[in-house]
Amino acid sequence: MSFVLSPRTVEEAVGLLAELPDALPMSGGASLVAMKNARLIEASHFVSLAGIASLHGITATDTGLRIGGMTRHAQLAACDLLTGDLSMLRQAAGQIANRVVRNMGTIGGAVGNADPAADYLAVLACGDAHVELTGTEGSRLVAMTDYVTDWYETLREPGEIVTAIHLPAARPVPSVYRKLCRVPGDYATASVACASDGDGVRVAVGACGHGPIRSREAEAALRGNLRDPVAIAAFGAALADLADPVDDVRGTSEFRLRLIPRMVAAAISDLEGKR
Amino acid sequence: MPGKQVFTLDLNGRETEVFAPADATLLDVLRDNCALRAAKRGCNQGVCGACTVMIDDVPVRACLTMAGACGGRAIRTLEGYGDDPVMGRLQEAMNASGGVQCGFCTSGLLITARNLLAESPRPAQAEIRSALSGNLCRCTGYVRIVEAIASAAEEVAR
Ligand SMILES: Cc1cc2nc3c(=O)[nH]c(=O)nc-3n(C[C@H](O)[C@H](O)[C@H](O)COP(=O)(O)OP(=O)(O)OC[C@H]3O[C@@H](n4cnc5c(N)ncnc54)[C@H](O)[C@@H]3O)c2cc1C
Question: What is the CATH number of the domain that holds B96?
Fold first, then answer.
């Protein structure tokens, strides 16, 4: 039996989670309540984060943007601050589920849940985002590229919550999010986030392993060779080598491994078209 | 009774007290305690859209909303649109065009369609289709539903 608690501050929320070992945080409930309905989880309490003002909203900081954990997908899908190399985040938010679910689900819940197929993970890894984690001891920042450690495992300690996502300020260069899915609104079979970076690109692959896949070495090797199909193919192959996709209803592991180089090449060519 | 609690809800403009299991969803409470059965329990996973209701003027899934998280929020179900002429037009158009067959998805579709017309009084076909993408219908093939919404919108805007 999960009782709903509605704290008004982050301190109160993490205090409750520390006190109640069988409680779980709840943001939009879009995944949590679905799991409850399917009897996949047991929790003594759901600690709702919806009433905590500091978790709402997108603000400019000294270094870029701070996106509060309770920011809904619908808000990000319509956010004018997400331009240039951050426009991929806006594109990804607008492709999650459907409009009604986008009114419910949040970036904090999606990153907290760390579903390997969640659309934000690749975008945030590509965008050099940091995850702000807060517990009773205070807050810390973890790079998105390090955050996911195994299937549904992250650097988030029990009792910590995702309070915000930090992104560097938008740069006026193109970015793209490519999602391959069986029907619009489904989770990705595979996805690619790609942002222009001088004479190179930053790329992260989603839904093809326990976490987003990014290789700074492969990106360095591709630098200056964006018009060379052989170099692009080698880059895609290097990312596929790092992938560890599952066989599931959305596709076989082998299918996903074949998709990666093609989707990466397509995303890079999208960027060339946007210049 | 252990595990039950009183929820005070702002439901269709009326303050309503409900005694229900602490982990009830809004959909459970609407159907099982309030006899408001327009919202349907289809997938109970947020996929099918049959339970769509408005909270604070935003369409959401009642099946994914905990009743205990609804305090102080204005909930409106299809039953709360009795005096809304636009909803009336949508209902008539759905009936007339054959957009209703078994009827299971209809309430959720109507809420979604009503919200669409609030945002966009004369939506293009593509806009209607995109708005409906989170409402599954297993009978009609959607064409008549899209036509019904377009014709109701046209009449209302005239
Ligand atoms: C029909 C449907 C289709 C979907 N399709 C997609 C899709 O295409 N792509 C996609 O990416 N997602 C999809 N989702 C998931 C959706 O993005 C959810 O919004 C997301 O999983 C998180 O939901 P939420 O924010 O409501 O978090 P909740 O459901 O409240 O929580 C999810 C999990 O994260 C934990 N949690 C919640 N908040 C925090 C926090 N701040 N810190 C730490 N842990 C937290 C909870 O305890 C729970 O375990 C879909 C969901 C539905 C219902």
Answer: 1.10.150.120
